[in-house]
Amino acid sequence: MTNIGVFDSGLGGIAVLNELAKKNDANFYYLGDNLRVPYGNRPKEEIKKFAIELVTFLERFDIDFYIIACNTISVTCKDYLIEHFKKKFIAITDMAVEASLEYEGDYLALATKATISSHYIKNKIEAKKDATVYEMAALKLVDLIEEGYLEGPDLDEALREYLYPANDKALENIILGCTHYPLIKDQIQKNLTCQANIIDPAIYLADKLDLRSGEKGVNIFMTKKSAKTERLIDQIMEVDYKLNYLGDIK
């Protein structure tokens, strides 16, 4: 049985975990740092420190390989984590690039400040095909989602601002460059005034793994106990799971 570690700064990676667990058989161990979310506006050295702490915790479960279900960690720390832990790390941002290359036309990459500042998605796609990737740091979305605003006027107002380049230029593709964003995919679609493909790298990754053993276990660990978080996890997850908090672990 394969043991897969999945980690993120908060709830966003739960959407990745759900897609992985729906389509693959493995023991999944997820750690979400909802105590210190969001990571996207933090300095690189602080993000690196947090990432090391998350993986160090998950190492106790004899992990075979890791999914970095956080684009911010992916673009700032992936190589450092590989060197430090000597294990395989699959970065969700690389999956975003791979998935996007299957679509024609230009793109809007929606992501956190750290991911956009790296220009990782833009540079990788534009190096491989004749297309333009417009970038938008969607600063408010993670906070809104973590607070449970998966719809409503505040979210719509923010989305109209962040989707302006896509609507103005009638872009063909929207890249979800933060794992929180699939949670509001319907609201993104609603606030588009053009026809666009919404590219969710978690779906692409889940199909690519293709693990079939007939058994699975899904263990979720969060760094902060929260009734709101519990409700949102229950809304997102479509498979059975066990929820734990770090304070409960000795």
UniProtKB/TrEMBL annotation:
The gene is murI. Transmembrane segments: none annotated. Substrate binds at D8, S9, Y39, G40, N71, T72, T179, H180. Belongs to the aspartate/glutamate racemases family. Gene3D superfamilies: 3.40.50.1860. InterPro entries: Asp/Glu/hydantoin_racemase, Asp/Glu_race, Asp/Glu_racemase_AS_2, Glu_race. Pathway: Cell wall biogenesis; peptidoglycan biosynthesis. The active site is at C70, C178. It comes from Anaerococcus kampingae. Provides the (R)-glutamate required for cell wall biosynthesis. It catalyses: L-glutamate = D-glutamate. One of its GO terms (molecular function) is glutamate racemase activity. Keywords: Cell shape, Cell wall biogenesis/degradation, Isomerase, Peptidoglycan synthesis. This is Glutamate racemase. Coiled coil: none annotated. Its EC number is 5.1.1.3.
